[in-house]
Amino acid sequence: MTRWAHGEALAACASYAFCSISLTLANKAIFSSRQLNYPWSVLLVQSLVVALLLAVYFTSGLAGPQLAANPIRRRLLKQLSIPTSFFILFIFSNARALRTVSLPVLTVVKSLAPLAVQIAERAVFRDPVSGGTYIAMFLIVLGNFVAASGDMGFHGSGYAWALFNILANVAYVVSLRYCLDDTYTPALKTLHSNILAVVFITPVAALLELEEFHIEFALTDFRFRVLFLASCLLAAGIGASVFWVLKASTGSTLSFVGATNKVVVVILGALLFDSKVSVRGWAGVALGLTAGGCFAVSKSISSGKMKRKEDSDLPTRVDVNVEMEPIDNHVDNKRG
Known about the structure:
The protein is mostly helical. 78% of the residues lie in helices and 0% in strands.
């Protein structure tokens, strides 16, 4: 890797870390606020902003002249219809959990999601699992039990939403692998999934809360409006930074940075928000974070071994007319 390429990879990882951490903290502040308890409307606006910014990106010609005229692909919309339904449940349940569960504990609870995804992929797609991954899984579960037992602000409905969020995450990832092929770039997938999210969320928001949201948002203070606008921009920024990391580095690097981000989120979450966690709870948080890092490393090692094996089996002739682009369905549209 040249000095320029190394610098680009560092800049890409730094941008992803900044957007991921900032979006998690901003969403915690928004969804736990008493000023604006309208999750469907908030998610609708965020998805709309992401879709509009990506539409501008494509129509401006930055993604290539072929996509500038019409970036919409009907086949992709059809493939993403089921995964996007699960994605909407994922981001909505995350909003509900953020309202009542302390950020340090919620961060550790959500570390169960990769574990659950790994089990589901093992059952559905027969993906191999290394011994190190199994050990990390056990430590993640143990860390969650210890953290939950030391959560002095335990809220039953919040934990229920957090567990539902994990199930929705699993359904989203598995449905992506089952329904989607690898002929589309991450940017196109993100554009189409957010278009579908706007289409799906709009009637729900209009029926339940959109009118009240409009009235209440007009009454919020300037600071809250700036925070809300920042969350919309960060939602778009995290998508762009994911594309950049995948282009400048690898999916394994992205997973590792994501695991590292959790440490910063826990620390800042404890400092910025009222986190009622006992010493035993903090021990569980530390154990869960460590286990999550070990899980990311073990997955990276396993992925590297599988990649080397696949490379050794590749034919020597390559059709240069086929566009090859790294795609990682697990990281599309991640919101903190």
